[in-house]
Design a protein that fits this description.
This protein is α+β, with helices and mostly antiparallel strands. It is built from 35 helices and 28 strands. 45% of the residues lie in helices and 19% in strands. Strands 1, 2, 3, 4, 5, 6, 7 and 10 form an eight-stranded mixed beta sheet that branches. Strands 11, 12, 13, 14, 15 and 16 form a six-stranded mixed beta sheet that branches. It has a six-stranded mixed beta sheet with strand order 17-18-22-19-21-20, with helices on both faces. α1 crosses α8, α10 crosses α17 and α23 runs antiparallel to α26. The model has no long low-confidence stretch (mean pLDDT 94).
Length: 974
């Protein structure tokens, strides 16, 4: 279908140009608001999921997090909607598919998406008012940014503490060594521009931000003359313009917004820096050093510079056959390539990074020598035309692919366009890659082209920083002492009036948080606006091959899966599955070693992989079934090659390259350890739920905290050659077992591609059976947990879990609504607003039959666990309004109806049917959700969520060991 275009132009706007991108099936239209100069990029597409995005250029020149705190505070009430929390209130009154706000290093954005036109207009009204007419109440600044408070807010004899949502969010974010690594590297690469500073805010600097500074920053930056609007979908641009003008723009005149936009001053010789990062006192510091090298490159908005830098990054890092990635994976300098490796092109000037983690401080010179030797070798030997063609093939594939599973596709396109718009480049060029790819194809014919890029951009580029970030077990203790002394000194200097002011502000803030605002002034959708059951794709089954085919608008890509029921496995074999699925696409196959296979995968596909899916039955979570899935995607012209590639991996993957296996496990360990501070709430919930059902136990052992601990132990054990050989033999034996299972296929592509895909499957898999019989099963699991997991973190992640019911149980729908009801009505206020955590909530997981409470980046611990219980008491004893119930139901329906990409929708439907989640079952669940009552919520809470039955898990720092032991939690070392 063609994109939706409209030639009408609103009189307040002038059209600058329009441009068709046939490979993306959309038209790009660019406009300017005549009076203010505000820019608008509209991506006209035949898609019901309309996206709105407004960005302001924000270039902070300190690390107080002013732009980040402002992003939070701006959403706390506006001129037209003077309620305390319109953003979170609208989340509850909306059918949005996405709502958020972002603070980048040099812009702040407010995006949302919705498939419902009434809902889109409602959200647009609130967003425009919040951004351009924000109230910026000082109490909201105190809540969202930072405030000084007594530990017991009404008791001046208690200690002074810092509180605030952004303050605690950044304490959590900056607990991760990788966050510190990036921030420290940037601060040295960029000495004079905004990128020198932490736009999110350094916790020790956030507390220096004053309310007056915030207001001043808002007045300077939040003006339409400094704004970039972007929209995507099937609403015509002139209809957006009508709203923009009426709701905001007509009230403004053009303003000259002067911002420090300039290039970084160049260094003339490389710099070397060594810094520490905090680990727990007594923690082993061996092999925990990060060493990275960063180069400053050219302008990100210069298309030629950008594509050359991307080409360079792909040549060096695309996969394990790429020279730099191979060098970093096989060296003994460290355990794994740094997650920083690659190109960062969102800033005005690009950064190229390579490095290692799991090293020692004394290995810096070795790393520099390795990197320089590897680059020099590429310059001398060049890069094969086949390798370069494979890289361009990947660029084309990624540009064509319609993503959007979890993040709206239109928003992804806008995010690609925003950087050039902020920095003065052309957004159309970066979205329309076809002409550029054609130019690059010509340039790579010159064998000196890539070597000259490496020489010019890296080897001869003196603006280079080598950063060594080493673990320091004394750092956090010293920091805490300094903070306590600073606060004690501050407290000692307080006048009586200042003490009174702190107590009064804490009281005023609590009163404001408890106040019931008149939310009738906010627009809303109701249950009458909820669509009937959302249509889902239907597949056609081919009995000869066991293939299910879905015709979808995939923009020239094809997707294929081989689906095998899991055979009977011992517990040891079961625990191997995550390593097996990770390694299967990373090892050699048949006659090809892993390096040759990496090249083949890159040349013929958009990537292949394997996954393990397991779920309970719709009426019994303990009755598990599972599937191994081999997946791949490719451009349609490579459909036959994809089929053969998957067949070869299925048939011939081998696990005899022992060093390769050892390298990949080291990388898996590094990634999983780093995930704790970013995914702590999910890991804590998984630990709390581990004993409540078979599926929960499996998740905890394979992907949860027990899985992380197991990976660390495995990585250490593989230093022993006999253990490594045994591990490889076990993987090979598991592969043989899996290959004997009956199989079926999932094929997704455009209508014209399905017959050729099916033919290639028939040809490739001649003589194979399509029986689907799996006899894997698990024993039921039932035990309670009370655990505290200790790791290096400045914040806590708290969880409680209860055993509940499977998805088709009559109570599942009410429990699902209870989760949203508790979050909206009690937990958000208690845990985020009052407690200062970045987030908190509750939810029913009907796949595993558990209900879970959580907090995220939380300064509190025992108090939060008490709040979980208090929320249940509040539900069962207070009087509640029907509107609150309706809002919770809307939230559940919004999650059920969240759109997928064309291919993702087909995968979702197919996998649902594998596990008995038929359209009829889902329609039944949806109807039950829509009919949930307040009395039913109280009944299911009283039945299933009794505080004495709770399992508890907390991820916290070793400093809280005593608190954990007082609460009766067993101590687990991560």
């Amino acid at each position: 279908m063609a994109a939706v275009t409209d030639n009408a132009i609103h009189p307040a706007f002038e059209k600058l140009r329009s441009h068709r991108i046939s490979t993306l099936n959309l038209d790009i239209e660019e406009y300017r608001h005549k009076k203010t100069g505000a820019r608008h990029l509209h991506l006209a597409a035949d898609n019901d999921e309309n996206v709105f995005f407004v960005a302001l250029r924000t270039f902070p020149m300190d690390s107080t997090g002013v732009a980040h705190v402002l992003e939070h505070t701006a959403l706390c009430g506006s001129e037209r909607f003077p309620v305390r929390d319109p953003f979170f209130m609208m989340i509850r009154r909306s059918l949005n598919t996405f709502m958020n706000a972002f603070t980048s290093s040099d812009w702040t954005a407010y995006p949302f998406a919705s498939m419902n036109r009434k809902d889109f207009d409602n959200l647009l009204t609130v967003y425009l008012d919040s951004v351009f007419f924000s109230k910026l109440d000082p109490l909201d600044f105190a809540q969202e940014g930072h405030r000084l408070e007594f530990e017991k807010p009404d008791d001046p004899s208690s200690e002074l503490v810092y509180r605030g949502v952004v303050y605690n969010e950044m304490k959590g974010a900056m607990s991760a060594p990788t966050s510190q690594l990036w921030q420290n590297l940037s601060s040295h690469l960029f000495q004079t521009t905004t990128y020198h500073y932490n736009s999110g805010g350094e916790p020790d600097h956030i507390v220096d931000l004053s309310y007056d500074d915030l207001v001043k920053f808002y007045r300077h930056h939040y003006h339409p003359s400094n704004a970039i609007f972007a929209t995507y979908g099937n609403i015509p641009a002139h209809e957006h313009h009508e709203k923009f003008e009426e709701l905001a723009l007509k009230r403004f005149e053009r303003q000259e917004v002067k911002l420090p936009v300039h290039d970084e001053k160049r260094m003339f010789s490389p710099m070397r820096v060594e810094q520490g990062y905090a680990v727990s006192e007594g923690e082993d510091t061996e092999a925990k050093t990060h060493i990275v090298m960063g180069w400053l490159l050219g302008h990100s908005f210069d298309l030629q510079e950008n594509l050359e830098a991307q080409l360079l990054a792909s040549v060096l890092f695309e996969n394990s056959a790429s020279p730099m990635m191979r060098a970093l994976e096989t060296t003994d300098i460290g355990h794994a390539p740094s997650p920083m490796c690659g190109l960062e092109d969102s800033n005005r000037e690009m950064t190229f990074v390579c490095g290692i983690e799991g090293s020692e401080p004394g290995r810096r010179d070795d790393l520099e020598a390795l990197v320089e030797q590897t680059l020099a070798k590429v310059v001398d030997e060049g890069v094969s035309p086949e390798r370069l063609e494979a890289i361009l093939h990947q660029l084309e594939l990624h540009q064509r692919e319609i993503a959007g599973d979890g993040f709206p596709y239109g928003l992804q396109l806008i995010m690609q366009a925003i950087s050039p718009m902020v920095h003065g480049g052309d957004p159309v060029e970066l979205l329309d890659l076809e002409p550029v790819l054609a130019t690059l194809r010509e340039k790579i014919k010159d064998p000196e082209y890539v070597p000259s890029l490496i020489r010019r951009k890296l080897l001869e580029n003196p603006h280079r920083v080598t950063l060594t970030l080493r673990p320091d077990e004394k750092l956090e203790g010293a920091h805490q002492i300094a903070l306590r002394e600073s606060l004690a000194k501050r407290k000692a200097s307080l006048t009586d009036d200042e003490v009174k002011l702190i107590v009064e502000r804490a009281k005023a803030l609590e009163e404001r948080q408890l106040r019931k605002d008149d939310d009738s002034i906010l627009p809303k959708v109701g249950l009458s606006d909820v669509p009937l059951q959302m249509p889902e794709p239907e597949g056609k089954y081919d009995p000869e091959t066991g293939a299910t085919l879905y015709a979808r608008g995939t923009n020239g890509l094809v997707y294929q899966q081989i689906v095998l029921p899991v055979p009977a496995l011992s517990e040891e074999e079961l625990l191997l599955l995550p390593y097996y699925t990770t390694l299967i696409s990373e090892v050699g196959c048949g006659e090809l070693d892993y390096l040759q296979m990496q090249d083949r995968i890159s040349a013929e596909s958009g990537g292949i992989g394997a996954s393990f899916l397991a779920k309970g039955q719709i009426d019994d979570v303990q009755a598990m079934s599972g599937y191994l899935i081999f997946s791949g995607k490719a451009l349609a012209r490579n459909s036959g090659e994809l089929t053969q590639l998957l067949k070869d991996v299925y048939s011939g993957a081998r696990f005899d390259e022992k060093e390769r296996v050892r390298e990949i496990i080291a990388q898996v360990r590094a990634r999983r350890e780093q995930a704790v501070t970013g995914s702590g709430h999910g890991l804590a919930m998984g630990a709390a739920a581990q004993g409540l059902s078979s599926g929960s136990w499996l998740s905890f052992r394979l992907g949860g905290l027990a899985g992380i601990r197991g990976t660390k132990e495995l990585d250490k054990s593989l230093n022993d050659e006999s253990a490594l050989a045994q591990f490889c033999d076990s993987l090979a034996a598991l592969h043989e077992k899996i290959r004997k299972q009956g199989r079926q296929f999932l094929l997704i592509g455009e209508e014209a591609q399905l017959a050729p895909m099916l033919d290639s499957v028939k040809t490739c898999w001649q003589g194979g059976n399509a029986q689907v019989e799996g006899d894997w099963s698990m024993k039921p699991v039932s035990y309670k947990t009370k655990e505290a997991w200790l790791t290096s973190t400045q914040v806590n992640f708290c969880a409680k879990a209860y055993a509940t019911v499977a998805v088709d149980h009559p109570d599942a729908a009410a429990l699902t609504v209870v989760g949203g009801f508790l979050r909206n009505g009690y937990l958000h206020r208690a845990i985020r607003e009052k407690g200062g955590a970045y987030g908190g909530g509750a939810g029913q997981d009907s796949v595993n039959g558990v209900f879970r409470f959580f907090s995220y980046r939380d300064p509190r611990f025992a108090e939060t666990l008490d709040d979980f219980d208090a929320a249940l008491n509040w539900l069962c004893t207070e009087t509640h309004e029907h509107q609150a119930l309706e809002e919770a139901i809307l939230g559940v329906i919004g999650q059920l109806d969240r759109p997928h990409s064309p291919a993702g929708a087909a995968r979702h439907a197919f996998h649902n049917n594998l596990f008995g989640r038929t359209p009829e079952q889902r329609a039944r669940f949806r109807e039950r959700v829509l009919n949930v009552t307040l009395d039913e919520m109280r009944r299911v809470a009283d039945t299933w969520l009794k505080p004495e039955d709770a399992s508890v898990a907390v991820i916290t720092s070793p400093d809280n060991r005593g608190v954990a032991e007082q609460l009766g939690l067993s101590i687990q070392e991560l």
